[in-house]
From TrEMBL:
Domain YiaAB two helix: 14-66
Membrane-crossing segments per the record: 12-34, 40-61
The protein, known as: YiaA/YiaB family inner membrane protein
Pfam families: YiaAB
Keyword line: Membrane, Transmembrane, Transmembrane helix
Taxonomic lineage: Bacteria, Bacillati, Actinomycetota, Actinomycetes, Kitasatosporales
Keyword rRNA processing among record annotations: no
PANTHER family: INNER MEMBRANE PROTEIN YIAA, INNER MEMBRANE PROTEIN YIAA-RELATED
Xref: InterPro entries: YiaA-like, YiaAB
Amino acid sequence: MSDTPGKQQNTAAFYGQAVASFAVAMAATAIGIYQLSADAWVRGFLAVAVLYLVTSAFTLAKVIRDRQEGAGAAPAYTPFEKH
């Protein structure tokens, strides 16, 4: 096993599985909301809530990835740290 630093690459199968999983989850949720026996405004509210949840999850994943990629760079500024 090598300890050389480098950027890890995901395999095409892992990428495909992640995309397929996301597509199935979104489709199942959309079908579930559509088939729900409730007023249209309730289904609309749930649809908007799901879209908000998805966009915030993508943003959180990006922030975490950016923080991890920047961990080897210069230390972050911490205004309350004593020197």
